[in-house]
Amino acid sequence: MNFGHFDDANKEYVITTPDTPLPWINYLGSQDFFSLISNTCGGYSFYKDAKLLRITRYRYNNIPVDSNGKYYYIKDGDSIWNPGAMPTRTSLDAYECRHGLGYSRFHGEKNGLAADLLAFVPVDTPCEINKLTLKNNSDAAKEISLFSYVEFCLWNAVDDMTNYQRNLSTGEVEIIGSTIYHKTEYRERRNHYSFFTVNAPVDGFDTSRDDFLGLGRGNNNPIAVEEGKSRNSVASGWYPIASQQINVTLAPGEEKEFVFLLGYCENPKDDKWEAPNVIKKDPAKKIMEKFAASQQVDAAFAQLNAYWDELLSRYHVESQDPHVNRMANIWNQYQCMVTFNMSRSASYYESGTGRGMGFRDSCQDLLGFVHLIPERARERILDIAATQFEDGSAYHQYQPLTKQGNLDIGSGFNDDPLWLIAAVAAYLKETGDYAILDEMVAFDCHMEKAATLFEHLRRSFEYSRTHLGPHKLPLIGRADWNDCLNLNCFSNEPGESFQTTGPSEGPVAESVFIAGMYVKYGNEFAEICRRVGKEKEAEIAQKAVDEMYQAVLDAGWDGEWFLRAYDAASQKVGSHECEEGQIFIEPQGFCIIAGIGVKEGLAKKALDSVKERLDTKYGIMLHQPAYTRYYLNLGEISSYPPGYKENAGIFCHNNPWISIAETVIGRGNRAFEIYKKTCPSYIENISEIHRTEPYVYSQMIAGRDAARHGEAKNSWLTGTAAWTFVNLSQAILGVQPTYDGLSIDPCIPEGFGDFTLTRRFRGATYYFDVKNPNNVVKGVAYLEVDGKQVKGNVVPVEDGKKEYHVTVHMA
């Protein structure tokens, strides 16, 4: 069942009913100011950090769901409605929401009156613009009242939700003309404030939520709107809001436009708030003047569209499959950019108050956006590395505003150090910028402990090399990629347990998955050493990697697939010997990506076992059989009900690993089959089952054992976006950056046909024309570069050259 459709020409998803299975959202913003907005105008805004600089308030787990946002109430006689349907839920004569790249459009009609709302954040200004157009399509004049509504958050989103004994006395606002300033705690400890304004005279206002809504009422039926008269309330403590009333007269066929702005401002340090008036140098005035007229707004909107057009032009494919074109050219890359901005901090599943930026998450996300914004990828790498400890481990999370590590989480996730090598290797291949390795980077955010980025990579590798268990496999620590696989807990007596943290404290758990990472990214570290002339160090690293390769073959193979791990008592996890959880997806993907078992003939066995034991029509499950009871030695993974999340759910994040692994052994049909099962565009027609947005990837889908098999959760902010783009662009379509240039080696399904691909790389544009006359799945006979045949499948970089025309002959 569909609740909308793709408009590829305009790069939009068109939602045709407000009654989607879940709120279907979009992200506005590309630099520092961001808003989340749903298909019914729910959501919230913040500046840089969704926890520490939250501008508007949002309530998760609200009833009705998603019932706080930026709203515009239209009172037309006895009818009261909103362009996006919420919160009044008045039945509309017409409704449409168009989510585009960095903007959303809403169209509502009721009783001959049409309302069009455009919401976006301009490229270079810390504000959200809402342009509302009202048009009278009836034969009679209309006298209507328009009410805006925004509820302010008292900056720190956690404190805002918990510290009521204080917060209910701190709210401060100021009203000057059509502008409402939110200046809570400004004079006490802040130099910033927000404002909400409209480019028209107002007929009333409210800044007190209680006065606007009325006693015992919700935002679905505010008394001020119902009675058609604002209270002109001035909030003092309690719950500050911003609402303006504008009375509008529309002749038949007439339309009027209004520009509303929600902005964030900081004052120069030498300025003070001149209570009760805002300072004379009010920076908000510049923003208001910049977007005072519709023409200025239209120009800013055109600039936003040009920004995304240019960005997405850096990778573009034209194939016979519209789903591939749509996802590769628009939605997959767009989602990668959102994960760059948000990591896992702010979505409709992440409240913006906890996780912040993830060390592992951000390193993986970089794989999907480094080709789009290499200069900002560079900055992100240095931010991530600065949260590393001197021993090579790292804070698992850090706050985006302060760049400080999250003390509540700390370290102990032993896959984290290797992801830094993965990110830097991807950046070096994309840019050739080896100078980044000489950048001085702090340890634990303390510059007095700084070392070069290369030294950070060395310590990442050394941490993994020196933290091995009894099977010579890497110690898992608190967990590896699977945060819920906590194997360092075991019991001596019933009811007693303890957790070990290091090799000197008794039996310790080991991860075959990290072993696969160690081989994959240890090889990358060795190659980086060679590239910068550190041959001896490369030899040492390569020897350690080769030893790990053998350790996986000796202790990590279970006969038909790779083991997942050994627990703290050296018992196998992910083995046919286990009662439950006999086979896991992660090592089958990553060990083969690393090349382990390929020449030995083990890779095909492992991938055949995945298909036989883990595959479903909605994707590949994390493990099987699901855990039906709690296992102390496994930890949180067995606390979920069967089929959900880490307990045998379908993690879309690691489905691409299996697809990539299939391309390693040349099975293009199977690789593409896996890709299609979790790709939103292919499964749009089962949106009533899938439930999350049909234009972006979700983190997980309920597995075969779940009550709601096929239902997705945790959309938008997931490593699925980056890994799926890597899978499609590099493994399936086959254009992959290397240290020496772009390589091309497609692994496509039968019948895929010829395709063309445009790729920006190191300041030049590459035009690939892939010819496959014999319908082969994999294999490049030869390349022609600018009409000349070349050996191999790597297009070398030539200094100063700006265009490469490459014909790829598959055979």
TrEMBL record:
SMART domains referenced in this protein's UniProt entry, alphabetically: CBM_X
The UniProt record lists the keyword Glycosyltransferase: yes
Residue stretches making up the Glycosyl hydrolase 94 supersandwich domain: 11-277
Glycosyl hydrolase 94 catalytic domain: residues covered: 307-734
One BP annotation, GO: carbohydrate metabolic process
GO molecular function, one term: glycosyltransferase activity
Gene3D superfamilies (alphabetical): 1.50.10.10, Glycoside hydrolase, family 65, N-terminal domain, Maltose phosphorylase, domain 3, mpn423 like domain
Keyword Glycosyltransferase in annotation: yes
Transmembrane segments: none
Key words of the record: Glycosyltransferase, Transferase
InterPro entries, sorted: 6-hairpin_glycosidase_sf, 6hp_glycosidase-like_sf, Gal_mutarotase_sf_dom, GH65_N, GH94_catalytic, GH94_Enzymes, GH94N_CBP, Glyco_hydrolase_94_b-supersand
Protein name: Glycosyl transferase
Organism: Blautia segnis
